[in-house]
Structures are given as structure tokens and as C-alpha cells.
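Figure-free illustration: sequence to structure, shown twice.
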Amino acid sequence: MVRSIIYTLAAIALCVGVFIGTQIFIRNQFVHFNSALQTLYDKIEDETATREDAYAVRTMWTDKKSKLQIFIPHNDISYIDYWLSEACALIYNNEYDLALGKIEVLLEITKNLPDAYDVKLENIF
């Protein structure tokens, strides 16, 4: 009986540890990506952004999404891909005003998306 309780508590502790570790990992990935987007946003505002800047952010996202696909549904990742591709195309065509709007959307997504995967009561039920 005591052994069963100990095993159950150990399993619960292990699950909580995995959930918290996953939450920290996801948040860190989005913090780094958000800072790269913020740098690109600043360059777009100054109209100094080049297609290499945009593709560098896209390459960074490609690396991060390969790790995040384990934890995040593919629809959320595709949503970021969509907005980032549009922003890259607009930067390539020097349409900075339109690209700025796309990057603003991406900044908001990367700020709010990790909250959807936090270990909180409203995300569980």
C-alpha cells in the first residue's frame, strides 16, 4: 500500500516536471524568435530591412519549428509560416508599410501563443 502511494506520487511529480520543462522550453523558443522579429520590425520601420534579414528570420524559424512541432499543433506553426512568408515577400518587394503590419501580427502571435500551452487550469479544462 505504501509502495503504491509512493509510486503514484513519483509519477505525478514526474509528469509535473515534464509539463513545466516543456512550458519553459516553448517559452524560451518563442522569446528568442520574438526578439529576432523585433529586430526585423525595427529595420522595417527604418526601411533598411533587406531580403537577407527576412530570410535570416525565416531560417531561424525553420530551425525552431522543427523542435516545436513535437509540442505545438501544426496549425499554429502553419499560421506563423503563412504570416512570415507574406512578410518576407513584402520585404523583398520593398513594401515596408505592408510588411510592418505582418510583422506586428507575428509579434503578437509569438507573444500570446506560448500562453496557450502553459500549465494552467483554463488550458487543462
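We now fold a second protein in the same way, so the two outputs can be compared directly.
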Amino acid sequence: MNVYVDFIGYAASAFIVGSFLVHNNIRLLRIINGIGCVLFVIYGYFINSWPVILPNVFIFLVQVYYLFIYKKTIEK
């Protein structure tokens, strides 16, 4: 496999694991996890793996929802 594709996969894993290390800042946790999801979607595309792409798209959309849409409803 291409070394760049492997790097994307390792970076995605690092971001996901890193998001679990954030304890007191939920917003930062969601941003880091979202970056990991996007990287996993890119990785899944390169390895042609729908089981990697689909759940990460869904998780990314959940992160965006909680970062932007849900935040606006709380502020009102």
C-alpha cells in the first residue's frame, strides 16, 4: 500500500485516540474527533472500503450537529 495512504490511516487513528484523551473540553473533543473522522473517510476512499467510510461520515455529521446546530439551540 502507498505510504501516504498508510500515513492518513495512522493520522486518523491518532486523532480518534487523541479525542479520548480530552477530558474537560467537549468542544475540542468533538473537533479532534471530527478531524479523525474526515481522515478516516479519506483513508477509506483510498482503500475502497465502505465499512470505513460510512460510519465515519455518520460520526462526523453527529459531531457537526453537536458543534453547531445543537449549540445554537442551547444559546437561545
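Summary for the second example: Residues 33 and 65 are 13 Å apart (CA to CA).
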